[in-house]
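During the no-cost extension, the postdoctoral fellow (Dr. R.K.) reprocessed legacy sequence entries with the updated structure-token encoder. One reprocessed record is reproduced below for audit purposes.
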Amino acid sequence: MRSSNPVFSRRGFSRDNGAYAGFGTQQPQAQAGTATNPYATNPYATDPATGMPQAPVRGNAMTIDDVVSRTALTLGTVILTAAISWIALPVDPANINTSYGIAIGAALIAFVFAMIQSFKAKPVPALILAYAAFEGVFLGVISSAVSTYIDAGPSTVVQAVMGTMCVFAGVLFAYKMRWIRVNRRFVGFVMAAAVGFMLLMVVNLLFSVFAGGDGLGFRSGPLGILFGVIGILLGAAFLAMDFKMVEDGVAYGAPREESWLAAFGLTMTLVWIYMEMLRLISILKGD
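Re-encoded structure tokens follow.
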């Protein structure tokens, strides 16, 4: 079983003698480089003489501060480019086609950068920040469109941002209190639900392209509200899985570079939650 975020798919959620890395009988006290350490197989955490996995240098291990600082930088890039695109690419009748074209192009470029980083053995900060920058352009234009055509003001966007922050804070609190336990069953259920959700959204998109309108109606009306709530709940579950990966990385002494992957994964999940929140609030406001 692997994490919902492709940036974590090579780490943590893999079978190890019938258990899952970071779960089951493994204990946080396990030393890096042992068979039960999910980070022991990092290609850049090996002994140069023997080629065998070893614990990273103590001063080079990932810490919570590393994750926080990298996440702040990545999210800050998203927010900055979103604000710039909101101002520089106004979504009005005179510029709407140009703005939407740039937004779609930015989204595709961000997707390409995300996929390239996902298949790399090591994190590349430049790729991660580039993803954040282009994702910000996309979010800025979409947010501007919602603000312009739904409520003639930024209230919907502000509500979506506040909602995303509340989901993040709520999941973090529930995770720290151990009300949410990310185990093998939890991951399996979330991944199955995510696959089903994405397949339905793809089918709905295809119907909307060829039949017009909102396709099967999964993104508007009562069904749109239901699927918006499901999307937010899935995002919350992804957050819990991301928190587990960060916790395991710190506990098992993952290399400091892994903090960039943690920031990347958290940013992807928060973008998902924001988009679902924005869509849900828009539907609730009657458009």
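Strands lie at 15-16, 19-20. The chain is about 65% helix and 0% strand. The remaining legacy entries will be reprocessed before the final report is submitted.
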